Fold this protein.
Amino acid sequence: MRWIVLSLLLVTSAVQAEPMRLLAVGDSLLAWQMWTGRDIPSVMGQVLGAEVENDAVAASRFSNASGIGRALGFDVRSQYRPGPWDIVLMNGGANDLLSDCNCRACEPVVDGLIRADLDGEVPRFIAQVLRDGAQVVWMGYYASARSAQFAGCRPFLVEYDARMARLAAQTPGLTFVDAEDALDPSNRDLFAVDGIHPSPEGARRVGTYLANRISP
């Protein structure tokens, strides 16, 4: 009998020791530094003690990706695959604004992503992932040290993030975390040479902030 109890305890301990699994899907802000292992999702995983798979692709978007583009992961939704994920970290949408309206008069593009009534492409995608059983963490956009080609996008991204925050407030299993709270745009050391993507230190700060916001 003691051997049976011991075996059950060992099995239970093995199950409890299994690390959480995190999948990241989104655009270049999540993909940046991936080649060094110091990307935002990897840092988040290190803080949480999670196994991480980062499938984010630079230049990806939610709308109008071609068949080839979807196959290559340029549609954020195509990066996702059902699995035993505990957390799915997401972002995306800035490239839709850049490509579809050149960061000018972008209200219809924002509405396509998420309308004021909180319907749209992004909420429907999140609902799909939630149905698969994962917790979803949405990373909001931050103000960068240099706008470059995204000059003019800022007010639309602020509205986009505000809608995503409202969606999270009424959606069980969805957490909105604003990366802007982790980065000071005046600190150039937090950004890569282009002034938009995170430096290793910037990625460390954002990844740590994301992890701490969802930790019990």
Summary: The longest helix spans residues 2-17. The longest strand covers residues 135-140. Residues 1-15 have pLDDT under 50 and may be disordered. The radius of gyration is 18 Å.
